[in-house]
Amino acid sequence: MAVVPISPTRPRLPAWFKRSLPDNGVSSETDQVVRKHGLVTVCEEATCPNRQECWSKKAATFMLMGHACTRTCTFCDIEWTKNPAPLDPTEPERTAKAIAELNLRFAVVTSVNRDELPDGGAAHFAATIAAIRAKAPGTLIEVLTPDFLGRAESIDTVAQAHPDVYNHNLETIARLYPTVRPQAKYRRSLDLLKRVKDSDPTIFTKSGIMVGLGETDEEIRWLMDDLRAARVDIMTIGQYLRPTLEHHDILRFPTPEQFAQYQAWGKEAGFAYVASGPYVRSSYFAEEVLSGAMTLDDLRS
What is the mean pLDDT of each run of 10 residues along the chain (301 residues)? Predict the structure, then answer.
């Protein structure tokens, strides 16, 4: 296995990372609802830099199936475990209740990897989608799923529950998978996205990457071509930010102008929408990103 680039110091963030954060009054309300229903959010577990901004707008990405993952991606701050806890059958209903209480127009639901489960947790995703449809019928739903080890039946289980957006992140270019996503496979992830679109063309498919892990701009363009070959509709591109000094090093900081160039390349490649910027994450302003590809009224008609 290739050596993961790690340095003993944290690089200084460029000037364009400075920004003002909103008042945390509404953010506290979101926090209270999350706590009330005993839920886990990727906003907290992955140390997302956008948490306060998103929570102030009553937006959160709910993380199913526990707070510990069965994989060891070198960019991620989520806890790793060999022996995850059993699934909680009440979690889909509790998630739906929180979404209804927050009166969300758009909900994002993701999960840790649960490779020890026969279906990787696909039925749990489907149950959560069904519960949200029952409790909050006006809410649009985006799922961000693991690769389910490429199991076709698991992918189909989630797709047949008909989320409005099916997201699965490539995270990085193919060459870096052995160091960044050692238990994943680049082609397997592309095949998942293609299978979803082939099985139900009305579902918007989406994928995202981080830059700063060692990729080149040429490799980003190749990745865009691969995603379009899989008929992916929406792409997100953001800056990798190192959670701790034990994680993969940050190898570059593309400028805002470079991020604008990535967006232009994505439009040329044929994506319906590309969100590209230093603070962009796959779930960041997910409703606005989808609206950029297709208006909400069109989706509901």
Answer: 73 73 55 66 49 54 90 89 94 93 87 96 98 94 96 98 97 97 97 97 96 97 98 95 88 95 96 91 66 54 45
Token pair, residue 220, equals 């980003």
Q: How far is CA 143 from the centre of its chain?
A: 8
In 3D, which of 59, 57, 80, 83 has the Cα closest to residue 68? 80
- Closest to 270 measured CA to CA, from 237, 236, 238, 227: 227
**What is the domain class of 25-300 according to CATH?**
alpha beta
The whole-angstrom separation of Cα 75 and Cα 264 is 26
**Spatial separation of the C-alpha atoms in residues 137 and 124, rounded to whole Å:** 19
On the CB side of 213, CA atoms within 13 Å amount to 29
Q: Where are the domains of the chain?
A: 25-300
Whether the model pTM is above 0.85: yes
State how far the alpha carbon of 218 is from the alpha carbons of 214, 258, 272, in Å: 12, 13, 21
CB atoms under 10 Å from CB of 143, counted, come to 26
Residue 246: half-sphere exposure toward Cβ, Cα within 13 Å: 6
Q: Are 148 and 120 in contact (CB under 8 A)?
A: yes
